[in-house]
Specification:
Protein name: Permease of the drug/metabolite transporter (DMT) superfamily
Largest sheet: none
Shape: globular
Keywords: Membrane, Transmembrane, Transmembrane helix
Organism: Actinacidiphila alni
Radius of gyration: 19 Å
Structural class: mainly alpha
Number of domains: 1
Helix content: over 70%
Mean pLDDT: 83
Order of helices and strands: HHHHHHHHHHHHHH
Family: Belongs to the EamA transporter family.
């Protein structure tokens, strides 16, 4: 997302046994992780409806959700985790900084693609994340079971059933397709880097460095592109605050919390539930009728996720 790598390397095997997905954990702790994962998916599912309802440039919204998250985390990170931040080590710090750059790249590629190609095509291409996650793990020496591959492909098919995909021969649309595909790859890198850093660093320490880096990179992107960073009305600011709480602090942060236990393949596959989740939330909140394929697509995605989880449990047994 060759020969096996050392335990510290990205995608390495863990003590749970040969072939176990990196970061996977046996036992009762998984129940808590799956509960937190459900909250995280609900949080990120609010992202698209909130962005659609917010009258501000997309890159500026991405900047503010990260900058506000850093502001919320600062008292906790600089007080309770100050010592840990100092002891993170060069490798963990470097990977956290890199994860922040990759997350900014994800936002920077995907958001512009929405205005260059169809939203359905952009969504379908950006949700290829679990495929890239599994491929990167394979390149790094981890050998994903066939059930992981089957579950990953099945879950992506579920998203395609919901969103549809209509590749155009128009040059601008093709460029947008390429950006969305690149955003999906960047998201895979973000998940994998986070799973590696979380081996040794707490969620707070990692997300503080990661979000801070993302905010700085996106600020530069806003300044270069001329995206307005202010002048919004009160309602717009309230929606940005809501987006920060739901999608960033409860969404991304909890995903970074559970990736250590559930592993990158399960986590990245579960993120696909954001698409039907956003469709259902938009139906309830914005009055947008979900497409007829929403419910069967949700079932297909859940079936794919179940196969990935089953493969992980079989290897952990």
């Amino acid at each position: 997302m060759t020969a096996p790598q050392p335990a510290a390397a990205l995608g390495a095997r863990t003590a749970a046994g040969p072939g176990t997905e990196p970061g996977a954990e046996p036992g009762a702790a998984r129940t808590l992780d799956f509960s937190l994962l459900a909250v995280a998916i609900a949080g990120v599912s609010l992202s698209a409806p909130l962005i659609a309802a917010t009258a501000a440039p997309a890159l500026a919204i991405a900047f503010w959700r990260n900058a506000m998250a850093v502001g919320v985390l600062s008292p906790l990170a600089l007080w309770r985790h100050r010592g840990e931040l100092r002891r993170m080590g060069r490798r963990a710090l470097s990977l956290s900084l890199l994860a922040g750059v990759v997350l900014a790249l994800h936002f920077g590629l995907w958001l512009p693609s929405l205005s260059m190609t169809s939203v359905a095509t952009s969504t379908a291409l950006v949700t290829t994340t679990p495929i890239w996650t599994t491929l990167i793990l394979r390149i790094r020496g981890h050998r994903p079971p066939r059930l992981v591959w089957a579950g990953t492909v099945l879950a992506v098919v579920g998203v395609v059933l919901l969103t549809g995909i209509d590749l155009s021969t128009d040059t601008r649309a093709l460029a947008g397709d390429a950006l969305a595909l690149g955003a999906g790859m960047a998201a895979a890198g973000y998940v994998l880097l986070g799973s590696e850093v979380r081996r040794t660093a707490s969620t707070t320490a990692y997300t503080y460095v990661c979000y801070g880096t993302t905010a700085v990179v996106l600020l530069a992107a806003c300044l270069v592109s001329g995206s307005a960073l202010g002048g919004y009305d009160g309602t717009t600011w309230l929606k940005i605050v809501a987006l920060t709480i739901a999608a960033q602090l409860l969404g991304h942060s909890l995903l970074n919390r559970v990736v250590r236990g559930l592993g990158p393949s399960t986590t990245s596959t579960a993120i696909l539930l954001e698409t039907p989740g956003a469709a259902l939330i938009a139906a309830l909140w914005l009055g947008q009728t979900p497409p007829a394929a929403a419910y069967p697509a949700l079932g297909v995605i859940l079936a794919g996720l179940a196969l990935v989880i089953l493969a992980d449990r079989r290897k952990s047994a």
